[in-house]
Automatic annotation (TrEMBL):
Subcellular location: Cytoplasm
Protein name per its UniProtKB record: Glutaredoxin-C14
Provenance organism: Hibiscus syriacus (Rose of Sharon)
Main location group: cytoplasm
A Pfam family annotated for this UniProt entry: Glutaredoxin
Family: Belongs to the glutaredoxin family. CC-type subfamily.
CDD domains from the UniProt entry: GRX_GRXh_1_2_like
Length: 102
């Protein structure tokens, strides 16, 4: 859990993902469309990926990816991120944590 929280707080926008996950891909495309670049941690390509996946599961998400953190705080998975975007709440949440957003 410590590693997940440390990595999540190192950058303004962090995405825990798996390279083969279609929902993770959808979140990546959304961020690309709104021109933000998250720090992405691909759990299936990290030697400690299984431990991080377990830690994310303990935070209450099943499946544990994608997991999006903004400003070190867990925002959620695909449903939460897409809902925030559709309601107009994602970009204001990102602005203080992402210098590239206008």
């Amino acid at each position: 859990m410590d590693k997940v929280m440390r990595l999540a707080s190192e950058n303004g926008l962090v995405l825990f993902s798996k390279s083969s996950c279609c929902l993770c891909y959808a979140v990546k495309i959304l961020f690309q469309e709104i021109r933000v670049t998250p720090t992405v941690h691909e759990l299936d390509q990290d030697p400690e990926g299984r431990e991080m996946e377990s830690a994310l599961s303990r935070l209450g998400y099943s499946p544990p990816v994608p997991a999006v953190f903004i400003g070190g705080k867990l925002v959620g998975s695909t449903n939460e991120v897409m809902s925030l975007h559709l309601s107009g709440g994602l970009i204001p949440l990102l602005k203080p944590n992402h210098s590239m957003l206008n």
